[in-house]
Amino acid sequence: MASGWFDRLHPLTKFTWALSLALITYGAANTPITLILLVLALLTPLTVAQPRALYGALWAIFLPIGISLFIIQGLLFPGNASGSLTFYGVTIYTEALSNAGVLLARIMTLGSGLLCVILTTTPSRLTQALAERGMPRSIEYILLMALQIIPDMRARAAAILEAQQSRGLVIKSLVSRVRALLPLIGPLVVGALVDIEERAMALELRAFASTSLPTRMAVIVDSRAQQIARTALLLCAVLIIGLRIAGRLPS
């Protein structure tokens, strides 16, 4: 499968990029900086292998969030009543809408960076990169399981549902969907428990408790340029936050 420029970056470089976006956006609390970072975050999907899918996910996530923010801020939290617009008896306060726009920009900047990392980096690759930096193997396993639990449960639930439908289960209405939950929960929980036992046996066979370093089948290449870029991103975030704390960066 073809990969984009962002896909080929080291997992820690991607994570540092998303972390720097979040730190600068919320630490600086500066509207022009937030808008610049938002543009950079929204341009990042263009460097991945499947930008259309990523933009589709961003649209599906942030559209309802944006609508709810503008409704709540514009109608329920008026702020300065001097600036307002009235449509068909409904008063919308412009200052509150401006605040909602800034808040939405910050959320989109944070979410876009994280979504780019999540959708272009497999959990095993991310945990391996962290383990190569000295993270304990127990923490690596816990983090990997936490990242994989939702996809694994969804796949298992889909398989159980398909098996039940092949045996005559009919799902047409909301009521039938609710009724289908009960026969779905039992096999789902039992399957999860069996999977935990199988994972524990596999870990014992692979000498998980051994203190020696494991041999990796795949090596994640980390270039000197990416190491410098990660350091520069973090230093830039610290510098901007320091300027904000010192009062030299307006809001």
Can you put this structure into words, describing what you see?
Strands 1-2 form a two-stranded antiparallel sheet. The model has no long low-confidence stretch (mean pLDDT 79). The protein has eight helices and two strands. The protein is mainly alpha-helical and 251 residues long. The protein folds into two domains: 11-122 and 222-245, no CATH class; 133-205, no CATH class. Helix 1 runs antiparallel to helix 4, helix 1 runs parallel beside helix 8 (224-245) and helix 2 (31-43) packs parallel to helix 4 (94-120).
Number of domains: 2
Largest sheet: 2 strands, antiparallel
SS elements, strand count: 2
Radius of gyration over all CA atoms, rounded? 24 Å
Average pLDDT level: 79
Low-confidence runs of at least 5 consecutive residues = none
List the helices and strands and how they pair.
Layout: H1 11-28, H2 31-43, H3 51-76, E1 84-87, E2 90-93, H4 94-120, H5 123-131, H6 137-166, H7 174-205, H8 224-245
Antiparallel strand pairs: 1-2
Helix pairs in contact: 1-2, 1-4, 1-8, 2-4, 3-4, 5-6, 6-7
Condensed summary:
With 251 residues, this protein is mainly α. It has eight helices and two strands, in the order H-H-H-E-E-H-H-H-H-H.
